[in-house]
Amino acid sequence: MMLSTSFQPIVRSVVFRTGSAVQLKGTANELFSAKNYEGASSLYTKIIRDFAERADPEFIRGVQCNRAACMIEMGDFQGAIPDLEEVIRKAPKEANSLKTIGLTQKAHHRLARCLFELGKLTDALKEMDRYRDIPGGGTTEAATTLRNRIIEAIVLRDESRASTRVPSSGNSKVLRYEVKVTVPDQPSVSIVNYDTVALSLCTMHPPEMPTKMFLADLVKKYHESIMQERNWTCWNCRRKAVSLVHTPGSYLHLAEPMVVDFAQPVCVNGGECDKAARKMMDEERRFAAAAMGGMNRR
Q1: What keywords is this UniProt entry annotated with (predicted)?
Q2: Phi, then psi, of 177 in degrees rounded to 5
């Protein structure tokens, strides 16, 4: 009996403290709805400070995501980033509930918004790609709107920078240009840029020479920036790479036109590794063409 008597108050105390955290979050949510973002942020901070060690981790993730929302509403986009990055980092590796998945997506969306407002457009778009790629996730009108705003800003930025843009009379579409840099035994690296492409090329059977010229100009335009992304090593000999062998594949006929460019770093332009890469890619192209020809004859 004495054991039971001494044990019972501890249980009630824990339940009371957990209930207090939930109540505080409810009050903070009400303050947020009333646009008292500073007051809401203070309560979210109190919850994190007082309950993070013993509350459900998912509960704390939600509170951190909400505190970041307060920062965003107050215009402190940089201040919101640490909370959002932690919410993403602590996401369960195998999420099995819509609530958990939704919270992680919300964090990616809010982080993308912060990066967009800070002018980090490429990073913002990558966050929206991660938002979209979460297994079991959905999308919202707000997410679609943000993604379109980011893409439009990237296109405008690139237009202002570009001196070798393919001429366009305004009859163009947004193009996704994805470069996949591959080195054996290493994870491939995807680099995404957005550009524009003339509508005249966005057909199932586009004119051959204008398409080839467009692809050549596109590769040339982004080659240097891709080389500067990191210190690449040669795909074959692992020495420092000085260039890339590009193999762009055109998918301009899609509703959202895209070019996927498989690139391999090489140590010497015209050297043995360069030649081997080009030979291998030529064989891949012939194999792909033969496969497509077989499909078309069926």
Answers
A1: Repeat, TPR repeat
A2: -110, 110
Q: For residue 38, what are the CA distances in angstroms to 42, 139, 165?
A: 6, 29, 46
Phi and psi torsions of 268, nearest 5°: -140, 130
Q: Which CATH number fits domain 2-159: 2.60.120.200, 1.25.40.10, 2.60.120.260, 3.40.50.2300?
A: 1.25.40.10
Query: 178 falls in which pLDDT band (50, 70, 90)?
Result: very high
Model confidence, pTM: 0.55
| Domain ranges across the chain | 2-159, 166-297
Per residue in 27-44, pLDDT (tens digit) is 999 999 999 999 999 999
Q: Which residues contact 283 (CB under 8 A, 6 or more apart)?
A: none
Two structure tokens written together for 2 = 């004495």
Structure letter (DSSP) for residue 118: T
Poorest-pLDDT segment among 43-52, 82-91, 146-155: 146-155
- Ranges 13-17, 80-84, 208-212, 225-229: which has the least confidence: 13-17
